[in-house]
Structures are given as C-alpha cells and as structure tokens.
Amino acid sequence: MLEEETTKDLSKLILAINIVAIFPNGIMSINTRYRRLKEYLMDSLDLVQKSREDVGTLFSTTHFAAFLKYTCKHFSETVKRPFDFIRALRSYSPVPLNLDKYLLNFLKYIKSPNKLIEFAVLIIASNIFLDSYPPKAYNKYSLPQT
Fold first, then answer.
1. Burial of residue 117, with CB atoms counted within 10 A of its CB: 0-12 exposed, 13-18 middle, 19 or more buried
2. Domain boundaries, the chain
3. pLDDT in tens, 3-35
C-alpha cells in the first residue's frame, strides 16, 4: 500500500516500522485507548534525547530560534546562495582577527607534548566550541558531556 502512494524508494526513507496496538473505539476513554501509543512515543523521544545528549548534539530552543532568525535574514536577502549554518552562527561573534596571536601566547606556556594533548588542545577546542553558541544558549543540555 505504501509503494502505491509514493514514487520514492521507501527502504531509503524508513529504517523500521513499529506497530503499537490500541484498543478499539468506544471500549474505553480516549486517554486510556491511546495510552500505549503515547508511552511508546514518549519512550522513543527520551531515547533520542538521551543519545543526542550523550554525544553533545542536543539543541535548545535558543539554538533553533537563532537558526530561524539567521535563516530568515539570509533568504530575505537572497535565494541563490545556499544557507551556511557555520557562518550564520559566527555572524554575531566573528573569529577574532588576531586569534593566532592569542593561541601562540597561550601555547608558549605549554612545556610538554603531554600537556599539549591532555590540557591545551582540550581548552582551545572547548573555548572555540562554546564561543560558537548563540547568545544565552548555555544550559545543562547544550554543554557536551565529558
């Protein structure tokens, strides 16, 4: 039946089909009838949220609001250029022109390869990462778990 409704290859669009049985209409209240479906959907959302949180890719509404603002601005100006998420997020906080000097100044205090790997690289990467967040996006969900 699904193949008749679309010309797209469904095996490329659907990873799995899960069937959740609901009670027939009229036997019980709507809330009770759809409880299994609601619980299944809520459990699925919790799993997705947890997996995104584990890898540090959980976005907040602040992120989506910023993306929406930048996207609207971009497409109100042009539809010919593709939207660049990285440039959009850096537009409010551009990379400093003298970033190389700041990094060299910081790195001159690192005296061993182990300190470079175990300390300096982590500090630099986390600061670049956090600096790219939209304003007010810092919360317990947006910070990567270590």
1. exposed
2. 2-54, 61-131
3. 666 666 666 667 777 888 888 888 888 888 889
